[in-house]
Amino acid sequence: MTQYSHSKLGTFQQCKQKYKFQYVDKVKVESKDTIETFLGGLVHKTLEKLYKDLKFQKLNTKEELLNFFKECWNKEFNDKILIVKKDYKKENYFE
Asked: Assign residue 94 a region: left if phi > 0, alpha if psi is -120 to 50, beta otherwise?
């Protein structure tokens, strides 16, 4: 049975061909994450670590969380991440 969501119905209303490509034909479109999306994901991952550790009575220090964030940044940042602002580099976002 087909399941509908708000975004599926919105896509259908916006453009029936786009709906067909995306949900019927399942055409994959290569997209780049923006630096803002990447940073948001890292913040989410860091907060998730904080709260998961709290469930087990472990309170991370600010330094531990910053180190975790930095490790994730170094491991996950890649050239496919799109920086839109002119003359900005990754160093402008995290030093």
From this structure: beta
Token pair recorded at residue 75: 């491991």
Look up residue 45 and give its two tokens: 């991952």
Cα 69 from chain centre: 14
Name the one residue in this structure whose structure tokens are 């030093």: 95
3-state secondary structure of 82: strand
CA 41 – CA 70 distance, rounded (Å):
13
User: Which of 20-24, 44-48, 68-72 is least confident?
Assistant: 20-24
pTM of the model: 0.66
Q: Do 35 and 8 meet the contact criterion of CB atoms below 8 Å apart?
A: no
Half-sphere exposure at residue 2, Cβ-oriented, CA atoms within 13 angstroms: 6
Give the C-alpha separation, 78 to 35, whole Å.
10
